[in-house]
Amino acid sequence: MLSVEGLAVARGGIAVLEGVTFRLAAGRALILRGPNGVGKTTLLRTIAGLQPALEGSVSVPAEAMAYAAHADGLKAALTVEENLRFWAAIHGTREVEQALAGMDLLALRDRRAANLSAGQKRRLGLARLLVTGRAVWLLDEPTVSLDAASVALFAGVVRGHLAGGGAVLAATHIDLGLAEAEVLDLSPFRAKAPAAGGRRGDFDEAFA
Amino acid sequence: MWALLTRDLRLAMRAGGGFGLGLAFFLLVAVLVPLGVGPEGGMLGRIAPGILWVGALLACLLSLDRIFALDFEDGSLDLLATSPMPLEAVVAVKAFAHWLVTGLPLTVAAPVLAVLLNLPVEGYGWLVLSLLLGTPALSVIGAFGAALVVGVKRGGLLLSLLVLPLYVPTLIFGAEAVKRGAAGQAVDVPLLLLAAITLGAGAMLPFAAAAAIRVNLR
């Protein structure tokens, strides 16, 4: 479903990862691990198409990926339901009720996002994934500020998504409780530093 | 597209959304200029077209940096960029929402404020028409400028410097149309040029702005 071939990614004009290769089949989850700064977020952003790859390729069916970043993309002045309805409308889906129920937000539906706790905001941000109707979820530290019960709730949602033929690529330090997930350690793919003859990004090349 | 437009309008209307900011600024200019210039009617009437257009332009400038900066800060822009909606459409819709929240109220309020500046009666229709034709260009050009500085902390100053030169043709033709209209002369040339700027900007700048956002999101 998602196939990454020899991917090299750069952050701030300096290559951080190179030669990343993996395949993700429908119904499977892959957990990315690695120390801070190894380039997990950069890799996810590159796969999501938000930044260009230095080299290598990402092949994925068109419009199949839903990206959940550190920031949840919530509007503080809108209610929980309005936030979710907006993303559902943008993606042309209607599963707002299921998403609210799935992330245990039904009781909070009329509350403004400004008045949610950090964990509740995160739950709303993750509920957005359910209304995108997309098959491949790219998750960047999805469990930040979630309590144990919410992590278990989210693991259940992820399991449901996998069972429905979806796929999940997550960068996380915390055990999601997904025993069936494969783990990819990114440390061996770390790129050489520029001082040691490593590559630089396009931007720097153009202005060197 | 409709969802994004209604969301932006709803956000503008809610507390802290900034609706009325431009309008209040426009009102202040129109009230303070006669106090500063003095009550001599002939003089006020002569400078009224220019003052009204400068006021509308600066009022428009006030809210420009919010077009993309807020969405960038809370992460919505990343998510919109990965959504099925093309980024060009996002820019066009957000520019249109900005016009509905600033340009349109300014256009509607302008005849009332023109009274304060003693604009000759013949000029009122042309004032509204010129603002109606010209203010969409201000929003689209402004959205392009906002796209260029997205991600720059406190990018408002840079934005003003980038956008003001691009606003000059709109200002000149807009004020000229009102001036000629108030003096009973033919106004078709400045109005046509004003419409040309708006249509040209509306056709091209969403693409340029979307390209700028893609670069800035990297």
UniProtKB/TrEMBL annotation, chain B:
Pfam families: CcmB. InterPro entries: Cyt_c_biogenesis_CcmB, Cyt_c_CcmB_bac. Keywords: Cell inner membrane, Cell membrane, Cytochrome c-type biogenesis, Membrane, Transmembrane, Transmembrane helix, Transport. The chain crosses the membrane at residues 12-37, 43-64, 95-117, 123-150, 157-178, 190-213. The keyword Nucleotide-binding does not apply. Its main location: membrane. This is Heme exporter protein B.
